[in-house]
Amino acid sequence: MTDALQEVQEFHWMMDMLQTVDVGIVVLDRQFRVKIWNAFMESHSGLLPSEVREKSLFSLFPDINSAWFEKKARPVFELKTRAFMTWEQRPYLFKFPNYRPITGNEQYMYQNITLSALTSANGIVENISMMIYDVTDIAAGNKQLESLQVTQSEMLEQQQRIN
């Protein structure tokens, strides 16, 4: 097999992996236009890659606070650092419905998000990647635990007043 053919096959495998991984992957340029939109995002948003490509993230999702998001993303572009958004800070960036409504009590998907710089061959960052992780089960478990702790604390206080 030639090197060129092998490289094409490896590229195909990588693209297939990006489409089938159970994580949302979005690539944005400096104007926050969508460049890449994987199958996870398509499935949960109902929007095809062809519908979102070259469109502003903020026009597609007007609920996203553009000033806040741009403030989070600027250091990624300028300093080539990562930025993180956790469900504890903000339950979700994309208001996707919880796709397990029978087993879960949450209406929307809780998300952790990582922004990473994508450096071009000339060392300049023109795009960033956004990886969206569904952490609904973790968030729901933590919320249940907190609720149990509050209930237990209230019961202990009530018991101490009785004694």
Automatic annotation (TrEMBL):
This is PAS domain-containing protein. Pfam families: PAS_4 (PF08448). Residues 12-78 form the PAS domain. It comes from the Bacteria.
